[in-house]
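This part of the workshop introduces the protein records we will be handling. The question running through the whole workshop is how a given chain folds. To make this concrete, we reproduce a full record directly below:
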Amino acid sequence: MVLDIEAQKCGLIAVVGAPNAGKSTLVNALVGQKVAIVSPKAQTTRARLMGIAIADDTQLLLVDTPGIFDPARRLDRAMVAAAWEGSQGADLIALVVDGKGGIGPKVRSVVAGLKDRRERKILILNKVDIADKPRLLGHAASLNELAEFEDTFFVSATTGDGVAELKAELAKRMPEGPWHFPADQVSDATDRMLASEITREQLYHLLHAELPYATAIETERYTEKPDGSVEIYQQILVERPTQRAIVLGQGGSKIKEIGSRARAELMELLGVKVQLFLHVKVRPGWEEDRSLYREIGLDWVD
C-alpha cells in the first residue's frame, strides 16, 4: 500500500468498443479479479461499471462501458448513451477491438465517434491468441489511419498475454493525484448490483442460445442478516410466457441450476453465506419501466 500521498497517481480510463470486443474480460484481467460479468452473448454489459486496479503508486479507475452499436430500442439507446457518457472527461480512452473479428462497420462507427474527441486515446487489439498475426498488424495500421492513437497494444485478456505490460503503460499515463478509493476496493458496484449481475451472467451462460436478449434481473430484497449471511430475492423479468418456460426448464431444473451457480459465485465473492431466491415474472414491455433503469444502473433516455 502506498503511504506517501504526494507520490500517488490516479486516473480515469474509459474502456470502449463494439460489442464482444472483450472489454469486460480485459477490465477483470487488469484488476486481477472478477468485477464485470462476461458471456458470449453480445451486449452483456449494460451499465457503466468501474473496476479499480493498482499498479505500484497508481490507482487505475477503469470504466467498463457497454458495447457501442446502432441502437434501436429504448434499452439499446440507454446503453449506448452510458457508453459515450462513461468516456466523457476521461484521462485516457482505451478503444478495445476484437483482433480476430477485424474492422467491421461497428468498429468503424466507434472510431468515427472517437476521432475528434479531445481526450487522449490508445488502441488495444484483443484476442491475439486466436487472431492471425499478419492481419493484426494490418488492423493496427488501418485503425491508426482512421484516428489518432498515442499507442497500440496487442493483448489477450483471456490468457493474460500482454496485460501486465499494458497495465504498466496505463499507469505511466495517469496524472499525479491522491487515490479515490481504498487500496482494497476493486469496484464501485454495490453488493446489490453485483448480485443482479451475477444472476444475469448465469442466465446467459446457461441459456444464451435459447433466451432472447430482452431479459432483466430485478432485486426485490437484499438483506444482511445478524449472523453475517445475506438473503436475496430476485425476479427474472421476461416478455413472454414462452420465455418464462425456457428459464424455468423441465420441472424447474434450469432456474435451480441458475440459482445454484449464482449463489456459489456470490458466496465466493462476498465471503459470506448467501440465500438466493429466484422467480420468473412475465412483464411485457419491461423496457418502458423507468424505475427498472435505475435498478440496473442506466439513465432513462427518450
Remarks:
- The longest strand covers residues 216-224.
- Confidence is low (pLDDT under 50) at residues 41-47.
- The two ends are 45 Å apart (CA to CA).
- The longest helix spans residues 253-270.
